[in-house]
UniProtKB/TrEMBL annotation, chain A:
NCBIfam families the record matches: PRK07314.1
Protein known as: Act minimal PKS ketosynthase (KS/KS alpha)
Pfam families associated with the record: ketoacyl-synt, Ketoacyl-synt_C
Family statement drawn from the similarity comment of this UniProt entry: Belongs to the thiolase-like superfamily. Beta-ketoacyl-ACP synthases family.
Domain Ketosynthase family 3 (KS3): from-to ranges: 2-416
From TrEMBL, chain B:
Protein name: Act minimal PKS chain-length factor (CLF/KS beta)
Record-stated family: Belongs to the thiolase-like superfamily. Beta-ketoacyl-ACP synthases family.
Domain Ketosynthase family 3 (KS3), first and last residues per copy: 25-426
Source organism (scientific name): Streptomyces pini
InterPro entries (UniProt xref): Beta-ketoacyl_synthase, Ketoacyl_synth_C, Ketoacyl_synth_N, PKS_Beta-ketoAc_synthase_dom, Thiolase-like
Amino acid sequence: MVRRVVITGLGVVAPGGVGVKEYWELLTAGRTATRTISFYDASPFRSRVAAECDFDPAAAGLSPQETRRLDRAAQFAVVSTREALADSGLDTSALDPSRIGTSLGSAVGCTTSLEREYVVVSDGGRKWNVDHEYAVPELYRHFVPSSMAAEVGQEAGAEGPAAVVSTGCTSGLDSLGHAVELIREGTCDVMIAGATEAPISPITSACFDAIHATTPRNDTPESACRPFDRTRSGLVLGEGAAILVLEELESARRRGAHIYAEIAGFAARCNAYHMTGLKPDGREMAEAIDAALDEARLNPTAIDYINAHGSGTKMNDRHETGAFKRSLGDHAYATPVSSIKSMIGHSLGAIGSLEIAACALAMEHGVLPPTANLHEPDPELDLDYIPLTARERKTDTVLSVGSGFGGFQSAMLLARPERSAR
Amino acid sequence: MTATATATPTAPAVRPAPATAPAVRTTAVVTGLGIAAPNGLGTEDYWRATLAGESGLGRVTRFDPSQYPSTIGGEVPGYVAEEHIPSRLMPQTDHMTRLALTAADWAVADAGIAPGDLPEYGMGVVTAASGGAVEFGQRELQNLWSQGKQYVSAYQSFAWFYAVNTGQISIRHKMRGPSGVLLTEQAGGVDSIGHARRHVRKGVPMVVSGGVDAALCPWGWVPQIASGLMSTVSDPSRAYLPFSAEASGYVPGEGGAILIVEDAESARERGAEHVYGAVAGYAATLDPAPGSGRPSALRRAAENALADAGVRPEDVDVVFADAAGTPELDRAEAKVLEEIFGARGVPVTAPKSMTGRLLAGGAALDAATALLALRDGVIPPTAGVAEADPGHRIDLVTGAREADLRTALVLARGHGGFNAALVLRRAH
């Protein structure tokens, strides 16, 4: 008997608002949360735009001790965990803690805290031999971002396996894929799974500037991220977290849980090509999509919405459009595709989980979020990218894909549990 | 895969279940090792030194440690990157990634896997990471803050991050299968091997696993000082003495091991030259929150791994301990060993006393060492420790000990509450 995995709880911290409700309102309104960077003086940088969260730790329920101890990314994760658990209605204290696991994605860990503390102990970059006497006690926790998975697991009372999954910008899909595996293989019955990232800091700006990955469209920050548009000019950095409560289907049904969707298929591949480059044919992403369909035992014609990686670079747009055609054939032309990064930016390791949360909400509400800022479609891209306004459409099967530095390509399928053949 | 061909308007959305039953659970075996350790570069150098009790710990030379309370570390000796790494990769790789690429090269060669032997999508890479490529990251942070953003390397975006070793290994060997990166601090090496087995059981013929780490730079040193767990003893032979009455904390080291985990059947079919042993059992747990009053979950990790392997405690011939080196953590581990095996019920060793704790590389090296011990029927010693603190009721191996070894248990703990356990069995 194959154990199946369903989503029963969602928690989100995203640009534009804290909480699932605000997140969904932003996405369905087609509103963007990208703006001029306010966290630091970004004037030296080529790209000065980001999608920042207006996040007040105290208002979000964190104690002063938690706020001091935790990096911003860990704060997002803990707040999202609490919302997701409450949403699921699951009383984890009534469960065997050893059957609850934790899987948290993050590409760059506690980078904001690390850079802040680096500046202190190095005296503004002057010292190679940085000064331990100015090191805060939390520094080691920030140094090893695995600490964030421990924090989330302990918050949830989870004593099963826990890990941070860090595969660059596919971390948020891969962490969910990892969680699904742990439930299917029987190690866990419940997983607290998702991803978090708070990368908006000078070193991140500098490293993306250096490879011209981020957009220089600083004059119109609110429309700076333009996936699939002829005028797109790079990604816009974002931040945030999404935590999902995943459960084994039968036990979720037994307790009468609200089920958003089943995670019916997942696969990850490497392009083994280049640390940052993509080939336009999208072969490895297509391989991941095909393998996820195989696992879900679904034909490509079942897919009725694709949540694209859509990072806002020409290379990506061609790569993934190529991948969709490769895997879906003619059905690709009949399948609406959108990129929510147009609204909430690219939160690196977190975005994959934020996108799966959006897919679950799309299935829940029968509404597909649009691709904002898509006014002038790239003539070389000929799929339906849901420009500008959300679309009402009942969806039963959703594909979400991700692509990341390191060559990682991942694909995940959500389906209604009653439809899937598994 | 025929997805494109079946994507016609008339195709049913849902496919029928396949006629064949799911494959029976396969055995995952280790067929190749690559080791870079402070007391030996390369498997046989390391193994010879380890059996001889030769420590690789010394005063750190990679940077001047004199201003710090801790000065002892384990540096990989005699590694000349240019001899191993193509010149075009040099500017985009940290010392850590170079060591990892080299260990992966050796492991693939040791397994006798030539390009074309296995399908590209049938080879994956799962590595452990802890703090990323710290030295590379420190240099770029310094460039940014002391000189300005135009001095930051174009490679910074990926060269420092946690996924770099997996990404670079996959590119170098054209491995396009399911891959991953797991972070559980020092437990990561065991978790990567357990995860590799998961992929093998799902039908991936071969997965490169393990971990190689290196954070011997000031920006890697200071956070460890802040953890409060590092030894401040300046005599390299006395600084890291796990389970001893003199235990004063740990010493960091660099290096680790890459292990080739393969489906046993597939390894046999391709004519693998040797099989070190089987990955028979694996489990991981998380400790409850400090102050919760609930017990540590280390014991459950060990017991679950034994149950997963289908072995009883009395079947275990040797334990490779986590050996944190602080009195409290040593006591906790010794207590778990006593609870499971009885007082002095099983030989316990900590060869990491000769390498220091290697962050994400440590538990991977322990697993590789356990496989070498199974191969040769000898338990490597815990160097520098004359006898265990009598308060720890464990049979600590302090000199190489010959024994008929069939089953080894590797324990690993990661800062913050991670526990992982691996059961390895000798190949027949």
